[in-house]
Design brief:
Blueprint: H1 54-77, E1 87-91, E2 99-101, E3 117-119, E4 125-130, H2 137-149, E5 155-159, H3 162-168, E6 188-191, H4 201-211, E7 217-220, E8 224-229, H5 232-256, H6 267-277, H7 280-286, H8 288-297
Helix pairs in contact: 1-5, 1-8, 2-4, 3-5, 5-7
Length: 303
């Protein structure tokens, strides 16, 4: 076999760094292209996402519940179900100090709009709105603390995914080694204290404090992963992406143990990439193909 010539284009003398200076100020606009006339476009968030009138807010509530139910089915598809563990919460668009979440003991893959529970600020099931089903106590302690600490965040998600909990035992953030991992550049925290199953408000507050004021992703040592989002779509997608990166990290660690050195992405390039792919409408859109597929194949999710 003839030798293969390999050109190294990443030496310090000729490494090319891109910049956002000549790109659209809206990160969503950087990721797609329509027709030359500019009439073929993608739609961002639905208009009612910004509504303040009753009709618009009711539409938004229904939209939030449909996307939350589909997010659970997406997690079920990925095999994240682990008995009674795992929860996603989303603020109610009308009762802003209430949030929707999954009921206790219902499989992610069986979730539907009618099974979702509305939780009061005190952590109890709302007496008239939503399903009348119990909720997970640990989910209340974790999520209520996060929603209080991060009022700008709409959704929070946590479960015991396989690769996430495996990597969590190291108590380390994931390395920025791939384009997809730039989602977590300057956007991840590690909670280094495992205080047992979360059955006290203080542990939930500690987790919220570890997240800090801006991170949307966290590795809970000896426990698993947790992600936040401006939408439930962003939250669910970030979780799946972080779990995949944990798998990548475990594979890289195994290879490096055999003497193969991994290469980290230059911080300048990571920051450039993150400036686009971390934008909340882009992360929201990343779940859209899964949402549409679930609704098409499993229409009962909307019931």
């Amino acid at each position: 076999m003839a030798p293969i010539a390999i050109s190294d284009l990443s030496t310090p003398d000729n490494h090319f760094h891109q910049t956002t200076s000549d790109l659209s100020k809206n990160p969503l606009e950087r990721t797609w292209r329509g027709n030359k006339e500019g009439t073929l476009r993608i739609q961002g968030y639905p208009e009612f996402m910004y509504a303040t009138d009753e009709e618009g807010l009711l539409k938004k509530r229904q939209w939030v519940k449909e996307h939350l139910a589909a997010a659970f089915r997406f997690w079920g598809k990925l095999g994240y179900g682990e008995g009674i563990s795992g929860h996603i919460t989303v603020r109610d668009p009308i009762l802003r100090d209430h949030y929707w979440m999954n009921p206790f003991g219902v499989h992610f893959s069986a979730m539907s709009v009618s099974k979702l529970v509305l939780v009061t600020p005190e952590g109890y099931v709302h007496p008239t709105l939503g399903a009348q089903r119990p909720i997970n106590m640990a989910g209340f302690h974790i999520h209520s603390a996060i929603h209080k600490a991060r009022p700008e965040v709409e959704a929070a998600g946590h479960c015991h995914s396989l690769h996430g909990k495996a990597w969590s035992a190291f108590g380390r953030p994931v390395d920025i080694t791939t384009q997809d991992s730039c989602l977590f550049y300057d956007n991840q925290a590690v909670y280094h204290n495992f205080g047992g199953i979360v059955l006290a408000a203080e542990e939930g507050e500690n987790i919220a404090r570890a997240l800090g004021p801006k991170n949307k992703c966290a590795i809970l040592q000896n426990h698993g992963l947790l992600t936040l989002g401006n939408t439930v779509d962003e939250c669910a997608y970030l979780f799946s992406a972080l779990d995949k990166q944990c798998k990548v990290q475990l594979m890289l660690e195994a290879a490096e143990g055999s003497g193969i050195k991994k290469t980290l992405i230059d911080p300048v390039d990571a920051a450039f990439t993150a400036a686009t792919i971390q934008y909340h409408e882009n992360t929201y859109y990343n779940l859209n193909p899964e949402y549409e597929l679930i609704v098409e194949r499993e229409p009962a999710v909307l019931l």
